[in-house]
């Protein structure tokens, strides 16, 4: 334990039980006490058990048991929470059975995987402390369906996003025409939705970029998952081609009409008797 000037306290080796307790910080001017601040450090012994999602499983069970160590007077279980898009949601309803530190999820889906928190309120002599015991529901990755093909005009930037369910978050690898995709200053990878490298950006697409792209997701749980998408590259002036074709067709028909008219006129001149 090291005490610094200006009211700064540094506790070393926080895993040691002798640091558990309540600390009092007093602000005084001369002999006059102006303010007091209590800082409590508590210790708990934690035992966790989690589940791994399996297709068509009937239920998944998560559990967190805590045993307060020293200085804690009471502990009370508040409820289970789920972190959804950085927002904590308290779990309730028919699909969830919550008891003291135990959570049963009925008919779980892969989208239910993630971090769940069992919240306990720990009370000592001076303050109330909230302790969140985090337990994961793990699941192997699943790449969501991609469209069969996407089209971009030449020289535009193309984005292909591989959305993945599962926990822990997945790392995505890419292939092009069944060969490992070679990254360059035109082929860029970025992270979307917590997964790694699951968006491929191709700057200023060219005709040589046309073909089949494959994204494969893995997170160390169970099997990998992959999907294929076809990238089509279109000419920005392709709308002109039907018009040019129509103009050419009209010109050709006009030429044919003129030629036929001339031939018909010559034929008539040949069969018509000349006046003497």
Automatic annotation (TrEMBL):
Keywords: Disulfide bond, Membrane, Signal, Transmembrane, Transmembrane helix. Signal peptide: none annotated. SUPFAM superfamilies: Immunoglobulin (SSF48726). Residues 141-231 form the Ig-like domain. GO terms for cellular component: axon; neuronal cell body; plasma membrane. One of its GO terms (biological process) is synapse organization. The chain crosses the membrane at residues 239-261. InterPro entries: Cell_Adh-Cytoskel_Orgn (IPR050958), Ig-like_dom (IPR007110), Ig-like_dom_sf (IPR036179), Ig-like_fold (IPR013783), Ig_I-set (IPR013098), Ig_sub (IPR003599), Ig_sub2 (IPR003598). It comes from the Eukaryota. The keyword Chloroplast does not apply. GO terms for molecular function: axon guidance receptor activity. This is Ig-like domain-containing protein.
């Amino acid at each position: 334990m090291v005490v610094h000037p200006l009211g700064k306290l540094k506790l070393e080796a926080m895993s040691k039980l002798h640091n558990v307790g309540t600390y009092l910080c007093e602000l005084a001017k001369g002999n006059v006490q102006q303010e007091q601040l209590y800082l409590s450090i508590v210790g708990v012994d934690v035992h966790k058990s989690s589940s791994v999602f399996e297709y068509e499983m009937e239920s998944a069970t998560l559990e967190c048991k805590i045993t307060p160590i020293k200085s804690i007077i009471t502990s009370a279980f508040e409820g289970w929470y789920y972190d959804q898009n950085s927002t904590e949601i308290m779990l309730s309803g028919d699909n969830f059975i919550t008891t003291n530190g135990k959570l049963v999820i009925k008919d779980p889906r892969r989208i239910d995987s993630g971090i769940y928190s069992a919240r306990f309120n720990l009370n000592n002599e001076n303050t109330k402390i909230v302790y969140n015991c985090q337990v994961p529901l793990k699941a192997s990755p699943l790449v969501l369906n991609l469209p069969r093909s996407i089209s971009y005009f030449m020289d535009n930037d193309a984005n292909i996003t591989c959305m993945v369910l599962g926990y822990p978050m997945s790392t995505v690898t890419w292939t092009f025409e069944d060969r490992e995709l070679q990254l360059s200053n035109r082929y860029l990878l970025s992270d979307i939705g917590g997964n790694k490298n699951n968006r491929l950006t191709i700057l200023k697409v060219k005709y040589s970029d046309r073909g089949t792209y494959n994204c494969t997701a893995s997170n160390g749980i169970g099997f990998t998952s992959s999907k294929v998408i076809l990238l089509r590259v279109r000419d920005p002036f392709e709308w002109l081609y039907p018009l040019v074709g129509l103009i050419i067709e009209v010109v050709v028909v006009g030429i044919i009409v003129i030629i036929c008219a001339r031939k018909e006129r010559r034929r008539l001149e040949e069969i018509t008797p000349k006046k003497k």
